[in-house]
Amino acid sequence: MPTALVIGASRGLGFELAKALQADGYQTFGTTRSDDAELPPNVNRINPVDIAKEDAGAKIAVALGETKLDLIIVNAGIFMKETFDAPSFEDEVEMYKVVSIAPVFLAHHLYRTGLLASPSKFILITTEGGSITLRTKEEGGGNYGHHGSKAAANMVGKLANDFYDKGITPGFMKTDMTRGVGFDQYYESAVEPAVAARSTIDFISTLTHEQTGTFWAPRGPRDIGEAERVLRKNLPTPLQLLW
241: closest CA among 74, 148, 107, 129? Predict the structure, then answer.
């Protein structure tokens, strides 16, 4: 039986990823920040784990014991809205810690403790919001910590040749994190987390070693707001994104 670990599995996309992986026959582990957070049935709980803390990777390694992982999906994220007129130093630091610093330390601990199967896949769930190429004047500015931390996470994925890593954006989703953050005009038409989870897992199953350090939108350009404006019309699905 293959094994999978979902970092941030208590709600939204993470919950649906863990649920789908369990249904697909994976022995699935999920991390949560609190003891009372909900997880899908039969998903093994690892908690409390705050990946913004330096000891998160060590805690996960201890909880796994000798269980080797075939698939790790780092899904945990945080979105704190801000503007140029009212930036928050504390909020930006927190976003960078969770989104772009934590994956390095998680991978380090899992790799050094021998808990990555060979072969295995280490997946970062990021966003097109971290693509410098896809940021346009028409889309506007603001949310510097969000975009900057996602761009940094994409760079982690690009640089991390010590472990086999890919970046994936599941598209703009209808979740608690995306409600009321300035994109309400797109919220009702956004993809449901369960749909995004299924397409993400199906795409992950096709990834090869040669695609290490690449950035993909499994659902293609339909959920990537600036893709056709910046790139071209009639883009393929799945779509490899530019950094």
Answer: 129
Residue 238 phi, psi dihedral angles, 5° rounding: -65, 160
Ordered strands of the 239-240 beta sheet? 44-46, 27-31, 3-7, 69-74, 116-125, 165-168, 215-217, 239-240
187: confidence class by pLDDT, cuts 50, 70, 90: very low
The C-alpha atoms of residue 52 and residue 105 are separated, in whole angstroms, by 10
Q: Is the pLDDT of residue 67 over 90?
A: yes
- For the entire predicted model, the pTM comes to 0.88
List the structure tokens of 43. Answer: 């998903």
Pick the more confident residue, 188 or 214: 214
Q: What is the pLDDT of residues 9-66, one digit of tens each?
A: 999 999 999 999 999 999 999 999 988 899 999 999 998 999 999 999 999 999 999 9
Pick the most confident of 123-127, 162-166, 188-192, 209-213. Answer: 123-127
Sign (positive/negative) of CA torsion 63, 150, 212, 237? Answer: positive
Report how far Cα 178 is from the mean position of its chain's Cα atoms.
Answer: 14
Distance, in Å, from the CA atom of 181 to the CA atom of 170, rounded to the nearest integer, reads 18
DSSP string, 124-168: EE--GGG-STT--TTT----HHHHHHHHHHHHHHHH-TTS-EEEE
> 140: Cβ–Cβ under 8 A, 6 or more apart, which residues?
none
Scan for tokens 């994925």, then name that residue: 157
Residues 6+ apart with CB under 8 A from 139: 225, 226
